[in-house]
Design goal:
Largest sheet: 5 strands, antiparallel
Distance between the termini: 62 Å
Radius of gyration: 25 Å
Strand content: 15-25%
Strand order of the largest sheet: 2-3-1-5-4
Order of helices and strands: EHEEHEEHEHEEHEEEHH
Number of helices: 7
Length: 247
């Protein structure tokens, strides 16, 4: 049974409801953090619980990107996680309530590595929208016409089928090069004009991630249409049975 608690939302949780991959994990996922939340804010939120400060990364908070409003914290034990989850789930941080969930141990390492990669990138990014779907990296580089030494690379955003979605990101070494790239805003590539804006590695990561999820969502049939199909099939079956009974 969960430990006694004054938090009414804790009654929603039971040990046997937790997937096996989460059991014994010392990691909790936080959702609904204020966008201004910092690591210190999370420490204060968990002030009555023991954070595993011996870990390489005990707390991760995402200020932007696909994990905006989310964070991860590693406590000293699974039991401490259960106690924290029971008392803190849907408690307020600032003017927002925070949801607290179990998370697998591996997620903390992956998230910490992603955060480190994105936050330490010193380069500058320009987002390109409205590309012809047939555009290549060479087309985009020719469009900008920047010196080769200023360019880190171009990333054309693809969906999970490997099809272009009309977005790309130009990564350059200096702010001056990024500002020069912006002077081509609403210029044309092929037969289409493109929109340019200053971006970041966080936005690039989020855009690529959501593009990969696009068809996965579309491939799942709506529950409403599933019900419609079932009703139609049943109705046809009933009519056929009636016809058979009269012949």
């Amino acid at each position: 049974l969960p430990p006694p608690t004054s938090n009414p939302h804790a009654n929603n949780y039971h040990h046997h409801d937790i997937p096996s991959r989460f059991q014994d994990s010392k990691v909790l996922k936080l959702r609904g953090l204020p966008f201004s939340a910092t690591v210190e804010d999370v420490r204060t939120f968990f002030k009555d619980f023991s954070i595993d400060d011996d870990a390489a990364t005990p707390i991760v908070v995402f200020p932007r990107g696909r994990y905006k409003g989310q964070g991860f914290v590693r406590l000293v034990s699974y039991e401490e996680c259960e106690r924290a989850r029971g008392l803190l789930h849907r408690e307020n941080m600032g003017d927002r309530y925070v949801e607290v969930f179990n998370a697998p141990e591996s997620s903390m390492d992956e998230i910490a590595a992603l955060y480190s990669r994105l936050s330490s990138n010193p380069n500058h990014f320009v987002r390109v929208r409205g590309l012809p779907y047939s555009s290549t990296e060479a087309d985009i580089l020719e469009f900008f016409g920047l010196p080769e030494q200023e360019i880190v690379g171009v990333r054309i955003v693809l969906d999970d089928r490997g099809m272009a979605v009309g977005d790309a990101f130009l990564e350059v070494r200096t702010e001056e090069a990024a500002q020069k790239a912006l002077t081509h805003d609403r210029g044309t590539i092929g037969t289409r004009y493109v929109e340019l804006s200053i971006s970041s590695p966080w936005e690039e990561d989020a855009t690529v991630y959501y593009a990969l999820q696009r068809n996965k969502a579309n491939n799942n049939p709506s529950p409403v249409w599933t019900c419609v199909v079932v009703v139609v099939v049943c109705a046809v079956g009933a009519v056929w049975a009636a016809v058979e009974a009269t012949t």
